[in-house]
Amino acid sequence: MDTETLRNYIGASAADDEFIDECLTTAQLLVNEYCGKLAKIPQSVKERCYLEVGSELYHRRTAPLGVAQFATFDAAPVRIARDPLIGVYPILDRYIVRFA
Prior knowledge:
The structure is a single chain. With 100 residues, the chain is mainly alpha-helical. It has one domain (3-93). The chain has four helices and two strands. The protein has helices at residues 3-10, 17-35, 43-62, 89-93; strands at residues 67-69, 77-79. Strands 1-2 form a two-stranded antiparallel ribbon. The protein is flat.
């Protein structure tokens, strides 16, 4: 998987390639770490997960997900932390065997 693939998936311009590359690298690290070394996950599934997580990371910059605004005096928005892997756990978990 390369930066161009992620750029096309999220519909960004080539001007953002440096940031897109950072998002892709981080996505690959997060997915690979979650899977561990023993999981036998098809490459096509992993690449789909890289796209999903990379997209999540990219869109946090321009349109942060999980923003809440409460009826307070100053009405300041509060960002609620969100795991970028939330969308890929169900995909990956079918391939991962966890030992208790």
